[in-house]
Amino acid sequence: PRFFAWSNSGSVSFSGGATINLTSTAYNSGSHYSTSTGYFTAPVNGVYHFTVGIYTYTATQFSWKIVPTAGSLSNNNAHVSRNNNSGDDLLLVQAFNSGQHGGSITLYLSSGEQFGFGSRSSSGSYYGAHSHFSGYLLSQV
Question: How far apart are CA 88 and CA 78, in angstroms?
Fold first, then answer.
């Protein structure tokens, strides 16, 4: 499974804690990335790699977001947001001003877990046409 999500939109506003949803894909093998939610759903237990680039208009913090399955190993991964806006999350980008920012992460996901990125706690806006999110399975475990 692999995907590359992007958007051809201009300025897009988001609320605090929101998941960024890029609505187009250049490729989406297995259709595991949802253009309606912004989340990738792991089809198998494995090690995955994700990369993000976002052009933000506002000073804000972005974080990785995971929706774990019950009893999964990811429940024990420290500092990855549980998508509950608790602030106890893995900071992806600290944007002190507008511009292009990016990051990547490699982690284990259990089958069925969802993974994405978004605002850590504040609202703002980003330029969709200069933003992307991609990922792929490195190794099935």
Answer: 8
